[in-house]
Amino acid sequence: MDTDNALAAFAALAQSTRLDVFRLLVAHEPEGMPAGEVARRLDVPHNTLSTHLGILARAGLIEAERQSRLILYRARLDAVRELASFILKDCCGGKPDICAPLIADLQPCCPAAGQNTDTPAAKEARHV
């Protein structure tokens, strides 16, 4: 990730509705959510949500997948991992032990490819 991509991601998340949308999609990984369900849960008009989804997608934070007649939106957890890595690249003056607690906190959110993300907390968040 470069500075321009990081700025685009932060700019996309620097608006309350988009941040709420992104957090909701993160909570519903890996299955994703259709736009109508996102709009209903967040009480956002469909046309407004469409604009927000487009901004998040252009920033590389979410992706859409067509499944039959539905379009499911998903958070790109790899983008979250890249953004966190970009921020923490030179963390703590080369003393990784200082950043270890922060990195450990990110592990359940952004596991390496192939790891199970369906923790009890994630299941609970999806059923709110």
Automatic annotation (TrEMBL):
Q: Name one GO molecular function term.
A: DNA-binding transcription factor activity
- Where the record annotates domain HTH arsR-type, the positions are 1-95
Which InterPro entries does the record associate with it?
ArsR-like_HTH, HTH_ArsR_DNA-bd_dom, Metal_resp_trans_reg, WH-like_DNA-bd_sf, WH_DNA-bd_sf
Q: Which Gene3D superfamilies match?
A: Winged helix-like DNA-binding domain superfamily/Winged helix DNA-binding domain (1.10.10.10)
List UniProt keywords, sorted A-Z: DNA-binding, Transcription, Transcription regulation
Record-linked PANTHER family:
ARSENICAL RESISTANCE OPERON REPRESSOR ARSR-RELATED
Write the protein's name: Helix-turn-helix domain-containing protein
